[in-house]
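User: Sorry, what's this?
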Amino acid sequence: YETDQIPKSDFDLKWRASLPKGISPNRDDLLGVAIPYSKLGKEFYLRLFADDMPRDDAKACFDTIFKSQKLWKMDAIDPYISHLIGPDQTKAALFRKFTRTCRSPTNPAEKYLCKK
């Protein structure tokens, strides 16, 4: 594919074919590698590697994250910001500075992170 967008059906086929016999795909294995999303009723995966995130600039990192997807679940965003967390920087502080809590447009009970 010329872009980082791969139709879900193609991705799933290639993913299953690349696994050893007896091993099933597990969506958790994609954390930090690819994100699922829908566009005009079609499902895709977007290649987004955690290792490619800006390293020394938290704002640039969050800008990259939210450019690729507007709403994030907390556990899905973790691999993309883990390199920013340390003794002087907590995940909660990063979230307070660069995100806000949003509700899902389809299910108001679900909470997501979105750009501040």
Observations:
- The first strand starts at residue 5 and ends at 7.
